[in-house]
Design a protein that fits this description.
With 303 residues, the protein is an alpha+beta fold. The chain folds into 2 domains: 49-254, Glucose Permease (Domain IIA); 258-301, LysM domain (Membrane-bound Lytic Murein Transglycosylase D, Chain A, Roll), CATH 3.10.350.10. It contains 4 helices and 19 strands. It has helices at 7-37, 249-256, 268-275, 279-286, and strands spanning 96-99, 117-119, 122-123, 131-132, 135-138, 144-146, 151-159, 163-169, 174-181, 183-184, 191-192, 197-200, 211-218, 221-223, 229-230, 235-236, 240-243, 259-261, 299-301. The strands form 6 sheets. Strands 2, 5, 7, 8, 9, 11, 13 and 14 form an 8-stranded antiparallel sheet that branches. A 3-stranded antiparallel sheet has the order 6-12-10, with no helix packed on it. The protein has a two-stranded antiparallel sheet with strand order 1-17. The chain starts with 6 loop residues before the first helix and ends with a strand. 25% of the residues are buried.
Amino acid sequence: MRPRRPAAARALRPLALVGLWLCCATLAFASVNDTLSGPADSSRVRGSSPDRPVSAPALRFRTEYFVPDSTHTFSTWDERTIDIYRADLTKFRDTVRLYLNDHVAGVFFSFPIRGRITSGFGYRRMFGHQFHFGTDIKCERGDSIVAALDGTVRVVRYDRGYGWFVVIAHEGGLETLYGHLSKTMVEPGYRIRSGELLGYGGSTGLSTGNHLHFEFRFLGEQFDPARVLSFEQGEVLVDHFDLDATWFDHLVELAKAKYHVIRRGDTLGHIARRWGTSIYRLCALNGMTTRSILRPGRTLRVN
């Protein structure tokens, strides 16, 4: 027959069970809390990665490039939309250093293709007030087009304007776009290396001949590649550059632009007087001469 425990021991047994239950409950709560809250903010740690998108590899950020906040991470991954940011960079108050070449970090720029520039960034001479948001480089159909920098392919699809095009997301909010391709060789989510084949040159979409349409984009807005690259010489003009609001002054000018819709019976003189400008100014803004035919429905820039 088992000896009976002392009364004091029997009295402490329920307390011990309660204590054990509380310990288990505390550990379980802590585990659930860690799962729900996720890891600590890693974007503030050098060499760490922001939250990974569901359908794409995580993009690595360095603090020298850009310290992403909640609006600048790639936690929202879109494989259809070109501009996923919808940022107003005319109000941009920061300065961001972006690297094209950094041997320590293993960043190397590769020219997508080298050749003659057929249309630069800015207003087109032959098309008046039409603003060109990229750089067109002459190529032949089937010429190899390669990635400019390491990154992750985000968009690959056909567009009526761009034709077949590819968008690659790089570090620090930088993206590159390659348009009018005859064929693409990559898919969204693919981690591509600088100099790696992404497609072949062509003239798909709204195009007048074989060429590559190349764009630099920061948070969705284009800026002029000619400030840092020479496609004709195949030369990187600067290894790094500091991007601020002045790189997007063209957006301010475009926002202020006014246009006149030509009506039947309009003349350049009537339009000039109505908008307080001159005929020669109208011609210069719209890439036309005083003998150009005014077609009803066409728009003219007037300032």
